[in-house]
Design a protein that fits this description.
Length: 305
């Protein structure tokens, strides 16, 4: 059982076709088919059921899937650790970010510092929802990610970086702009502009409405908080945001905010990585720079109030 065969098996299992699996591993379809055939010959049982449109894991394939992921994670960790022994300035860090605001405002400076410390490091950044990024860490595709907390996966560990209270936001021209508090029923009846599904904050908002037995009138789902704020500022609807992150807009009277009656929702941003996985020097340095950046961010937000 070879590493290349396990990589081929995992690529096909996740992509659902031999063609897509071959593309993912940068080999020909004939080559990946041969690797799977050799693997199946070795274990003595089929790993996939072939259908005209896609492949389906057999019972044996399902048993192998988790083990293959663990083996490949350990393989990648061993390669990274040995590479760093040869020269710590090399390193590799695959980063994910569920926060477009953070990726725009803070991440570039953090990466610049990291590149100065590790000039020959291989750094990559990918975006996605918190759920998607957590799954990619589990699959060995990412090393660390910025996600909304909590992460409900015992195989992942997290570090809290930033916490903010969730409030409803509206245009100063809104009919209820003088109010300080809005009820669940009132909020659900507004034209709501929310973040896309898949993030923890959106899930908590949906859970809040479900607990209040009201059905929200969601008219827009956007991936970036800045886009939500802009839509709300133009009186296109009512949004949800962190109180600290919109403090400057409220002070400038571009937006108003309401506390949501009965809601105790906090937006917590943290870093997540594999529990018990290899914690490389470059990852430790990255976490250190991130924590320093958020200390400075808190200071800036307090100054804007």
């Amino acid at each position: 059982m070879e590493i290349r065969q396990l990589k081929a098996f995992l690529a096909i299992a996740e992509a659902k076709t031999f063609t897509a699996g071959a593309r993912k591993t940068n080999v020909t379809q004939a080559a990946i088919s041969m690797q799977i055939r050799q693997l199946e010959d070795e274990v003595g049982i089929p790993l996939f059921t072939r259908t005209p449109r896609r492949v389906i894991l057999t019972e044996a394939g399902e048993h192998l899937l988790d083990r293959a992921r663990r083996i490949l994670r350990e393989h990648d960790a061993a390669i990274a650790e040995i590479s760093e022994l040869a020269g710590a300035e090399h390193g590799r860090l695959r980063i994910g970010s569920a926060s477009a605001m953070f990726a725009t405002m803070q991440l570039p400076t953090i990466l610049q510092k990291l590149k100065t410390r590790y000039p020959r490091a291989e750094l990559t950044v990918n975006s996605g929802t918190s759920q998607t990024l957590s799954e990619r860490i589990m699959h060995g595709e990412l090393d660390i990610a910025f996600v909304s907390l909590p992460v409900e996966n015992t195989n992942l560990q997290t570090d809290l970086l930033f916490s903010d209270e969730i409030v409803a936001i509206a245009s100063p021209n809104h009919a209820l702009s003088k109010e300080k508090v809005i009820s669940a029923a009132q909020l659900a009846g507004e034209n709501l502009i929310l973040g896309e599904k898949g993030g923890n904050t959106r899930r908590m908002i949906d859970d809040f409405f479900a607990a209040a037995s009201v059905r929200p009138n969601v008219v827009m789902e956007l991936s970036r908080q800045e886009a939500i704020n802009q839509m709300v500022e133009n009186n296109m609807g009512v949004g949800i945001a962190g109180a600290k992150t919109v403090a400057a807009e409220i002070k400038a009277k571009k937006l108003i905010s309401w506390y949501i009656e009965g809601a105790e929702i906090k937006w917590d941003l943290g870093l997540t990585r594999l529990r018990g996985g290899y914690y490389s020097p470059i990852a430790k340095e990255f976490v250190k720079f991130c924590k320093e950046s958020f200390v400075e961010r808190e200071k800036e937000l307090k100054a804007k109030k």
